[in-house]
Amino acid sequence: MPRVMLLIPSNSYRAPDFMEAAERLGIEVVVGSDERHPLEDLHPGRQIGLDFVDIEAGTEQIEAFAERFPLDTILAVDDGGTRLAAAASRRLELPHNPVAAVEATRNKALLRQRLAGTGIPSPEFHVIPVGSDPVAVAATLTFPVVLKPLALAASRGVMRADNAREFRDAFARLARILGEPGNARECGRLADSILVEAYIPGVEVSVEGLLDDGSLRVLALFDKPDPLEGPFFEETIYVTPSRLPESDQWLVAETTASAAAALGLRDGPIHAELRLNDEGAFPVDIAARSIGGLCSRTLSFGTGMSLEEIILRHATGAAEPSLTREERAAGVMMIPIPKAGVLHAVRGVAAAGAVPQIESVNITIHPGGEVVPLPEGGEYLGFIFARGEAPEDVEAALREAHRLLHFEIE
Questions:
Q1: Of the residues 75, 136, 138, 297, which has the maximum number of CB atoms within 10 A of its CB?
Q2: Which residues share a beta bridge with 64?
Q3: Dist CA 44 CA 40 (whole Å)
């Protein structure tokens, strides 16, 4: 029986789906989390608390654990564990992506530096120390621009500025976000700088893929029908299959493969975001992990395999019967947070779930929970899933279901 360590941050949505897939495949799972489980000592060899921030310390913890409980592979479920998975796998001589390649996916400045000069379309960019004078910096820029933290995920801290005044405000706001204790710890030394890059116009798409010895297999291409133009970049609807022309889909796939190669990624799942316009396909972000949140539930392959099952099969060297996605269109809406406050109630869930083609409505923040919108926040109120014959029908169902939901936030 293969023995897999899954690195699962405590705030991840992904644990249940990976655990179910592992059970179906007969894989023994060790859960490595960024928080120590209170029952860890009662289940030796099954759970371990790890340091996800200090990679050397976390690697030593995994090495000591593996001496007692040998591992066949280490797999990161979310962004927070990808660097640790690569470093620990290298130490234990297990299959892994190069550590430097994974570092580039977790540092937006490194990502831009690696892609620049490769022939892959890339925006002009600058790395600005947080302590810089934003007035002086603004005087050197051509607007519009996008400000980004170097390490935060889920669009936290990402803001567009169309002029010098907006840039000064966004720079100060992002500096405050990076100074918050939790974010500062997550980012480490990367909290000291801000990435400023030229705004890329165009439609945005998302690629879900699997690398096998450097060769990319595209598992799904998602359209994002809502315009992501700022001032913040909250993702909402994903729909597959894509309605882009075949030539554009080919360009997106080729650019994703070229970008992964330029970074040095060789193996395992990747999730890429790209913008497409008349000048080409521009990689916005590339991650050495699969799609986040509960969004993978939109995907089904072969005779019903989940994305998690395909990833685990690949990681353990098991046969992959089919990587062909089901024929029906599918989509998900990540329910945005309309305002900050405390969530008191959610009305209309039953009505939303009764909309034709809607599969489920999952509210993931419970009443009494604090909700924080972008750019400070990084969570969604929940997820709406739909499946149908055509992408446009799925999109319409998601929008109608969302219209029926009402959130009481004080």
A1: 75
A2: none
A3: 7
Helix (H, G, I), strand (E, B) or coil at 41: helix
pTM over 0.90: yes
Return the bridge partners of 30, or none.
5
Instruction: Confirm if 255 and 120 have CB atoms less than 8 A apart.
Output: yes
**396 and 346 part of one domain:** yes
Please identify which residue in the block is written with the tokens 């991840």.
12
SS3 call for 126: strand
- β-pairing, 382-388 vs 145-149, is unpaired
In this predicted model, what pLDDT tens digit does every residue of 124-165 receive, in sequence order? Answer: 999 999 999 999 999 999 999 999 999 988 899 999 999 999
CA geometry: angle at 345 spanning 342 and 346, to 5°? 120
pLDDT at 392: 98
What CATH number has the domain bearing residue 69?
Answer: 3.40.50.20
Q: Mark whether 187 and 130 lie in a shared domain.
A: yes
Is 183 inside a domain boundary? Answer: yes
What residues contact residue 335 under an 8 Å CB cut-off, 6+ apart? 363, 380, 381, 382, 383, 384, 402, 405
For residue 190, give its domain range. 124-198
pLDDT tens sequence across 236-277: 999 999 999 999 999 999 999 999 999 999 999 999 999 999
Half-sphere exposure of residue 19: CA atoms within 13 angstroms, side-chain side: 12
Q: If residue 243 lies in a helix (H) or strand (E), which one and from where to where? A: none
Cβ(207)–Cβ(253) under 8 Å?
yes
Q: How far apart are CA 151 and CA 104, in angstroms?
A: 10
What region, left, alpha or beta, does residue 53 occupy, with left being phi > 0 and alpha being psi -120 to 50 degrees?
A: alpha
Peptide bond into 231 cis (omega under 30): yes
* Host H or E run for residue 382: strand 382-388
Instruction: Yes or no: say if 361 and 352 are a contact pair by the CB < 8 Å rule.
Output: yes
DSSP symbol at 81: G
Tens digit of each residue's pLDDT (9 = 90 or more) over 1-53? 799 999 998 888 888 999 999 999 999 999 999 887 665 566 677 889 999 98
Whether the CB-CB separation of 197 and 112 falls below 8 Å is answered with yes
